[in-house]
């Protein structure tokens, strides 16, 4: 699992690249506060090495809660900036601080 942040100088946007090693998975998406937890909004693309990868433009100066959805199961990002408890989910969410 990995998160790469690239802050743009021209505008208040950060390009965030999510990478998840999930060779056995058929479908992986990132769901979070930035896409209203919509499992269809941010699917990750499967690469030849078996990992899944996708990039999202997010507003700089904000924090976002998110999780990966791997074949219907929620998974946290171990390299997240922090974690926050969600009473709605009954679990911790990963937090991305930009």
Structure characterization notes:
This protein has 98 residues and is mainly β. 0% of the residues lie in helices and 55% in strands. The chain is built from no helices and nine strands.
Essential attributes:
98 residues; globular; four-stranded antiparallel sheet; 9 strands; five-stranded antiparallel sheet; mainly beta
| β-strand number | 9
- The helix-strand sequence is EEEEEEEEE
| Strand content range | over 45%
Q: Which class best fits the helix and strand makeup?
A: mainly beta
| Count of alpha/pi helices | 0
Ends apart, CA distance between termini: 18 Å
General form = globular
Question: What does the average pLDDT come to?
Answer: 95
Largest sheet: 5 strands, antiparallel
Return residue spans where pLDDT drops below 50 for at least 5 consecutive residues: none
Radius of gyration: 13 Å
Give helix % range.
under 10%
């Amino acid at each position: 699992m990995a998160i790469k942040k690239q802050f743009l100088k021209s505008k208040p946007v950060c390009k965030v690249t999510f990478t998840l090693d999930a060779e056995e998975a058929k479908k992986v998406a990132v769901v979070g506060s930035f896409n209203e937890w919509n499992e269809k909004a941010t699917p990750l693309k499967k690469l030849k090495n078996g990992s899944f990868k996708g990039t999202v433009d997010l507003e700089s100066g904000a924090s976002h809660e998110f999780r990966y959805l791997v074949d219907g199961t929620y998974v946290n990002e171990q390299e997240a900036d922090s974690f926050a408890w969600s009473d709605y989910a009954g679990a911790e969410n990963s937090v991305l601080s930009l």
